């Protein structure tokens, strides 16, 4: 999966991001996906802007989390998912991306 496909997939899922009320950035080896859920509907772009929470993860691991093949908590505990910033936003991101 490339960054454009990933961004479109996240844009579709971010329609449920109203409860997030924050900004988040998913940082991958292919680039950045920025989610601004402070507005409704949430805006998803590839702009590298400051965010309340940053999730650092490889695209393959993110896809595996999305399909249920990789538990996000296990990914975090094993270092495949790194979180910078607001951990509460990171937890809400798990609900948004489900």
UniProtKB/TrEMBL annotation:
GO cellular component: cytosol
Residue intervals of the SCP2 domain: 5-97
Stated name of the protein: Sterol-binding protein
Species annotation: Fibrisoma montanum
């Amino acid at each position: 999966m490339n960054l454009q496909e990933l961004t479109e997939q996240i844009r579709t899922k971010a329609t449920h991001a109203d409860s997030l009320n924050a900004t988040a950035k998913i940082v991958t080896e292919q680039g950045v996906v920025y989610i601004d859920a402070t507005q409704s509907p949430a805006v998803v772009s590839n702009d590298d802007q400051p965010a309340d929470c940053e999730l650092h993860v490889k695209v393959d691991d993110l896809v595996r989390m999305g399909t249920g093949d990789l538990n996000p908590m296990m990914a975090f505990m094993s270092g495949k998912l790194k979180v910078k910033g607001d951990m509460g936003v990171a937890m809400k991101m798990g609900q948004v991306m489900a």
